[in-house]
Amino acid sequence: MNIKSILLTGDDGYNSIGTRLLAHYLHPKYDVKIAATKQQQSGMGGKINIKGGAYGEALIEDVPALWVDGSPADSVEAAVNHFHQEFDLVISGINLGANVAGSIISSGTFSAVFRALNLGLSQHGIAMSWNLPVEQWFLDHSPTESLESYLKYPGETAFDVLDLCLQHELWGANLLNINFPEKPTTEVVFARPLANINNFFMPVELDQKTMTFSYPGGVLEPEQTDLQIDVHALQSGKITITPCRADFLDPEIYAKTKQKSYQLTK
What we know:
It is a single chain. The chain is of the alpha/beta class. The protein has one domain (5-194, 225-257): Stationary-phase Survival Protein Sure Homolog, Chain: A (3-Layer(aba) Sandwich), CATH 3.40.1210. 24% of the residues lie in helices and 22% in strands. It has helices at 17-26, 72-83, 108-118, 151-167, 230-235, 251-257; strands at 5-9, 31-37, 55-60, 63-68, 89-96, 125-130, 175-180, 188-190, 205-207, 212-214, 239-244.
């Protein structure tokens, strides 16, 4: 793929470790810009703030950055009228915490790149996430925090995986969901999403006395391992790549039904 311009986004904040790592490695080779949230916004999914909010500009790792005091989806919406360009690639992440299985519907990381593609900011996108313990999922970041301990992994590894993806032209996909295991590895596999997310993320808890619900956080260990499933491969120490689509259409069913029409009877 002939990639010259890249937009970085995500839900951990415009100055997050993951965004800064990507900017650090990509800035010398590509025309890079950032559009992301002002603050930590994990778990926001595709929410937009219809009433609007504040935005501002900054310089992160020598890269021009647009921040919004809103959601990840707000940030890419704002990027349309701020940068006035189409990018060759949008990368969201590197998120602190895995984004696997059906949980991507709740992921600000995945939703940001998904919405960017649907806004026409790019025709290709990649979501990158790092499977860290729950206590690191909602960290607030500082632009002065040292990158030193993150440069080799996941930084350099993420850059190598990106090169692999570009060499193979994203294997024909327009959207890839990539997850890195907690500890360094060089093994990369393709995996499909886990069918039931409660077999990985601990399910919601209901308190009948206070009539409140809460998420305990943390993940479950699988009873058996299938390396063709994203969660299992990730927990086995593999980097996982899941090809996705930037729309919700089931092409096979649509091909069978597109010529059909019905008249409802009263």
